[in-house]
Amino acid sequence: MKKAIRFFTLSFIIAVFTSCSSNPNSKNSTLSNKDPLSSWNNVTSKTSVIDFVRAVTDKNNLRFVPVEDRIAVFDNDGTLWSEQPAYFQLFFAMDRIKELAPEHPEWKGIQPYKAVLENDMQALAASGEHGLVKLVLTTHSGMNIEEFSESVKQWISTTKHPTKNVTFDKLVYQPMLELLQYLRNNGFSTYIVSGGGVDFMRAIVTEVYGIPSEQIIGSTIKTEFQIVNGNPEIIRLAELDFIDDKEGKPVAIQRIIGKKPIFCAGNSDGDLAMMQWTASNQQPSFMLYVHHTDSVREWAYDRNSHIGRFDKGLDEANEKGWTVVDMENDWNIIYPNDVK
Amino acid sequence: MKKAIRFFTLSFIIAVFTSCSSNPNSKNSTLSNKDPLSSWNNVTSKTSVIDFVRAVTDKNNLRFVPVEDRIAVFDNDGTLWSEQPAYFQLFFAMDRIKELAPEHPEWKGIQPYKAVLENDMQALAASGEHGLVKLVLTTHSGMNIEEFSESVKQWISTTKHPTKNVTFDKLVYQPMLELLQYLRNNGFSTYIVSGGGVDFMRAIVTEVYGIPSEQIIGSTIKTEFQIVNGNPEIIRLAELDFIDDKEGKPVAIQRIIGKKPIFCAGNSDGDLAMMQWTASNQQPSFMLYVHHTDSVREWAYDRNSHIGRFDKGLDEANEKGWTVVDMENDWNIIYPNDVK
Question: Residue A181: CA atoms inside 13 Å, Cβ hemisphere, count?
Answer without folding.
Answer: 15
